[in-house]
Each structure stands twice: as structure tokens, then as C-alpha cells.
Amino acid sequence: MSGAGRRRSPVISRSAAALLTLVAGAGGAGCAIHSSGTSIGQKPPAAPVGVVGQPAPAGTGFLTAVSCGSVRDCWAVGQPPAGALTAPAGATTVVIDATVDGGTSWRPETVAVLGPTSLTSISCPTAGTCMAVGSTDITSAVVGAVLVTTDGGRTWTSVGPPSGSVDLSAVTCAAAGDCLVLASSGAGWWSASTSDGGQVWQRTGNLPTGFDGASSLACNGPTQCVTVGYVTKAQGQGTGAVAVTDDGGGTWAAGTVPAGTGLLHGVACPTLLSCIAVGTTATATTDITPASSQLLTSTDGGHTWTGLSAPAGVDDAYSIACPTTTTCITVGTRWTSAKPPTPTGGVVVSTDAGTSWTDPPLRYLPSGLTAVACPASTTCVTTGGDVVAQVVLPTPARPRSSGRGSQN
User: Fold this and answer.
1) CA angle, 271 then 272 then 274, to 5°
2) What pLDDT shows up at residue 301?
3) What is the DSSP code string of 325-365?
4) What is the pLDDT of residues 239-252, one digit of tens each?
5) How far lies 159's CA from each of 119, 132, 195, in Å?
6) Pairwise CA distance, residues 364 & 55, whole Å
7) Residue 386: is it exposed, middle or buried by C-beta count within 10 angstroms (0-12/13-18/19+)?
8) How far lies 233's CA from each of 80, 240, 288, 289, in Å?
9) DSSP label at 28?
10) Which of 277, 279, 290, 313 has the most CB atoms within 10 Å of its CB?
11) If you ran DSSP here, which 8-state letter would residue 86 be given?
12) In 3D, which of 345, 261, 254 has the Cα closest to residue 308?
């Protein structure tokens, strides 16, 4: 990937030895078990959890983000296969894959662009409206790219990016047309907002000095947002960083993270005050280094952070989603013990707001995962490499009844 501060991408492997298989359910005898299904610090959830992957549509090179406008309607974006980014101007080299049945089947969207385009983030506040962002190469000049749909993906339109941007790394839309993006000029990161679907952009605040690698944006309400990344400490080396705004992007402040934090890639804020950030203990910003996952938690809206125990089911963690205040799913890369280590998909689920995690049974995740979205409390989709997958989460537990009638 090109562009200042672009997120590191998990190495893709399509080796048959890396294929994961699903634990057989009540009628599925004969499937091999890859994931132990054992819990880390808690008993397995009562309802079975499962992750089932499949190849993404033809023409998909690498998927970097996914968003769902409803339980059935989701879109994943990324990059074309190697070599397609140098296609002649006017060629359709943008990758947008869509599902209208909750991830059971996917199809490519046909989008005409002016030049080779790489998309890094997408937000779909409704089943009919989405904004996807990234960068495009037009006549040898790299500029920010913005694509929008208002008809459920039947047509996509390019709109002008925020002035001065060479890369847009994250977007979140609170409502149709009402979006906030993170942008890079090549010399620093800042935010911009629009209330009309990108027709007019308002540049807002700069991210803290030295902040880089912004690749995830979580917002609670119209004003409070958190992003994660890193600060470069030496050539090719960085330490994890968090930036927070309490005024909708007007100003950004650095969050306080534990010393020695590795690169951070994803963040979710299930409540106004509680947030979880995920990443890796690795500090290399220019290549992929197998390492353990790293999780941080905040109870003050992202201003201060403490460490969480790292789950065993994911090594390099790249994305997190929390469909309820207590249920969260983290995805990323799981390195095999082969020599050299082989990256496969990793998924872990928590039902207690990140205190403990369970690694569910997996089927066909031959590449690391980079994104996850949960349109319902028990349903998610995850993507990475040229793979898309459905996730079934445990049903939230109901409060136990004492079995006694009320006493008046």
C-alpha cells in the first residue's frame, strides 16, 4: 500500500495447509476441529459460536474494511489484485463487494473511476447509503478518494475529497450524508466533516503532532470520537497512540496509553465512556512481524487507557466491534507454528466487555482478517485478504429469575 500512514496489512497466505475447518454442529459430523473452542478465563458461551469463510468475489485483491447498513445489507472495500492498480485510467479498478443476505453470498459492485483506486474504509448508516474512502492515482498524483451511494449500491458516485488530502484512512457516518473522515496531507493527519454526502467539506482539527497510521474511527453521538494508530519513535519503529475528540473533530487530544504499547489498529466504544482498542505488541511500522495481540481499555471515553489480558485466539489484532455493551468480537491474524510462520484468520469473542475471551470454531480463513462489522447482537461479518466470512455470536444471556413471585 502507498500513502502516508497507511495501515499495515496482514500477510496473505492461500496455502491449503492454512485452511481452517468448522467444528461439526449437531448434524455436522466429520468436520475437523482447528480452534479449541476453550475459553480464556471463562466457560464457553451456552450458544455455539461459529465463523464460516468463503472466497470473495472474483477481482478482489485485498479487503480492508466492511460496514453493514442493515442485518442483510453489507459492503466490503479494499484493493484490486496485484497489478490492477496500474491499469489504464478509466478502468474499473476499485473493489466494492456487497451482500444482501447477511453475508451468505457476495457480488462485486461495478464502479467506474478515473484512475486506480484503493479503498481503506466504509461507513453505511442505512441500507441504502454508504460512503467509502481511500486514495486514487490520477495522472501520477495521489489524492484522496470518496465514493458514495444513495441507492443501496446500484450506483456509486465519485465526489471531491477534502482539499489537500492525499489519503483518507477512516470514515464514520452518523446519518445519511453526515460523515467524519480522517485525512492525511502527507505531512500530518487531520479530520474533516460533511453534512451533504461530500459535496462540501469542512476541515476540522489536526490530530496530535506525530500521530500516524490512523485506521479506525469510533464515535459515540455527534461529538465524541476516538481513533488509534502510532507515533514514530525511530526509523521504521513506532509506539501505540490514541487520539480523542469531544467536539466532533474540532480539536483532538492525545490519550494516555501504557508505556511500551505496540501498534494499535482498531477501536470500539460500546458506551459513551467505555472503549476497547486492539493491536499488536510489535512496533515495526514498515513490515509484518509475528507478535502477540495487545488490548487496551478505557473507562473515560478514550482519554486514559490500561492493558487487558491478550486472548490466545488472535495474534496481531486488527479490528474490533461491540454489538452490545458486553459482547465484543476481535479479528486479526493467527500465526501457525510452521517455519516460516503462516498467517491465518483469528477470531475471539468476549461476553463480558473484554475481560475474558473465547476462540470459536472456524472454517476457511486462509488469510489474516482486517475488519469486522456487527449489524445485530448475534450476527457479524468479517473480511481480510480475498476472504469474506459470517460470524454467529452467542445470544446475550437473560437475567436469571429467582423463581419466586413478587412480594408486596
Assistant:
1) 60
2) 95
3) SS-EEEEEEEE-SSSS--EEEEEEEESSTTSSEEPPPEE--
4) 999 999 999 999 99
5) 14, 10, 13
6) 9
7) buried
8) 32, 10, 17, 17
9) -
10) 277
11) G
12) 261
Burial class from Cβ neighbours inside 10 Å (0-12, 13-18, 19+) for residue 264 reads buried
For 159-162, which contacts have Cβ atoms below 8 Å and span 24 or more sequence positions?
159/197, 159/198, 159/199, 160/198, 160/199, 160/201, 161/133, 161/198, 161/201, 162/192, 162/201, 162/203
Whose CA is closest to 359, among 36, 32, 41, 22?
Answer: 36
Which amino acid appears at position 357 of this protein?
W
Distances (CA, A) of 241 to 189, 212, 236, 304: 13, 8, 15, 11
Confidence of residue 3 (pLDDT cuts 50, 70, 90): very low
Q: Give me 225's grid cell.
A: 470520537
Burial 30-64 (b: 16+ CB within 10 A, else e): eeeebbebebbeeebbeeebbbbbeebbeebbbbb
By C-alpha distance, which of 211, 273, 276, 283 is closest to 246? 273
In angstroms, rounded to a whole number, what is the distance separating the alpha carbons of residues 250 and 223? 9
Per residue in 35-64, pLDDT (tens digit) is 333 333 333 344 456 999 999 999 999 999
Domain 62-206 = CATH 2.120.10.10: yes
C-alpha cell at 164: 489537500
- CA dihedral over 201, 214, 76, 3, signed as positive or negative: positive
Residue 176 grid cell: 445519511
Q: How many CA atoms lie within 13 A of 45 on its CB side?
A: 26
Give the integer Cα–Cα distance in Å for 315 and 335. Answer: 7
Three cell numbers at 291? 507478535
Distance CA 337, CA 18 (A): 11
pTM score of the predicted model: 0.85
CA distance between the termini of the chain: 67
Assess contact for 308 and 352: CB atoms under 8 A.
Answer: no
- Closest listed residue to residue 225, CA positions, set 256, 248, 197, 257: 248
Is residue 7 predicted with pLDDT exceeding 70?
no
**Which residue do the cell numbers 472495500 mark?**
77
As given in the structure block, the three cell numbers for residue 53 are 469463510
Output the CA–CA distances (angstroms, integers) from residue 47 to 32, 43, 102, 360, in the order listed. 20, 11, 20, 11
The pLDDT tens digits for 157-192 are 999 999 999 999 999 999 999 999 999 998 899 999
- The amino acid at residue 225 is C
